[in-house]
Amino acid sequence: MEVAVLNINGKETGRKINLSDAVFGVEPNNHAVYLDVKQYLANQRQGTHKAKERAEIAGSTRKIKKQKGTGTARAGSIKSPVFVGGGRVFGPRPKDYTQKLTKSLKKVARRSALSLKAKEQSIIVLEDFNFDAPSTKEFSNVLKALGLDSKKSLFVLGDSNKNVYLSSRNLKSSEVVNSSELSTYKIVNANNIVLLEGSLEGIESNLSK
C-alpha cells in the first residue's frame, strides 16, 4: 500500500512510502480486536470497590429491644442491614479484573486494527518533526494543517520525543505514543492515525513476525 508522505504544514513532500501488506493489508480478525480491547479496558479497572458488611460495622452489640411484646419484628443488632447505618448485604468486595492474552493474538489484533484504518484511509504518514520547546499552540497548528483539529487523533513516534509529547498533553482530542506503546484500543479509539516516518520500521518489525 503506497501512501504520500506529508510535512507538518499538511503538504505533500513529493515522496511516497510503502506500508507493509503484512501489517496494514491483512484480512481483519474482528474477534481478536474485540478480545484485545476488552482486555485493555478490564486491566484499567482498579478493583478496589468495597462496602462494609454486617460483621465490619462499628457499633453496639447490645440487643436493641426486647424479643417479644413490641408488636414488631425481632431485632438483635443495630448492625443489621435492615437498619440505616447497618451493614450491606452481599456488598462489593475487592477483585482483580486482570485478563491475559497470548502475544500472538495481540499482534493479530493490532494488525487487524491497523488494516481497518488503512482500508478506511484513516492513516496519515508524516515526516519526522520536533519542536524547540513544548508548545501546545504549535502542535495545534499541526493538527489544523492536517485537518484533524476536530477529530480524535493518535500520533505514533519512532523514538521518545519529550517536546512533542508535552505539546500534546493539554489537547483532549489528540494523543502521542511511541511505536512500542501502540495498543489495539488506542488504534480503534482514534479517528485518524498519524504515523511518523521513524515509527514505521518499529511497527512493521514488531507486528510482521
Give an account of the 3D structure.
- The mean pLDDT is 92.
- A 6-stranded mixed β-sheet has the order 2-1-3-6-4-5.
- It has helices at residues 21-24, 30-43, 103-119, 136-146, 162-168, 184-189, 197-207, and strands at 2-6, 12-18, 123-126, 153-157, 174-178, 192-196.
- It is 33% helix and 15% strand.
- Helix 2 (30-43) packs across helix 3 and helix 4 (136-146) crosses helix 5.
- Helix 5 (162-168) links the parallel strand 4 (153-157) and strand 5 (174-178).
- By secondary structure, the chain is an alpha/beta fold.
Please estimate the helix content.
25-40%
For the secondary structure, the number of strands is: 6
- The neighbouring-strand order within the major sheet is 2-1-3-6-4-5
Question: What is the name of the CATH superfamily of the largest domain?
Answer: Ribosomal protein L4/L1
Our measurement of the CA-to-CA distance between the termini, rounded to an integer number of angstroms, reads 19 Å
CATH class of the largest domain: Alpha Beta
Major β-sheet annotation:
6 strands, mixed
Structural class: alpha/beta
CATH topology name of the largest domain: Ribosomal Protein L4, Chain: A
Radius of gyration: 27 Å
Provide a short characterization of the protein structure.
The protein has helices at residues 21-24, 30-43, 103-119, 136-146, 162-168, 184-189, 197-207, and strands spanning 2-6, 12-18, 123-126, 153-157, 174-178, 192-196.
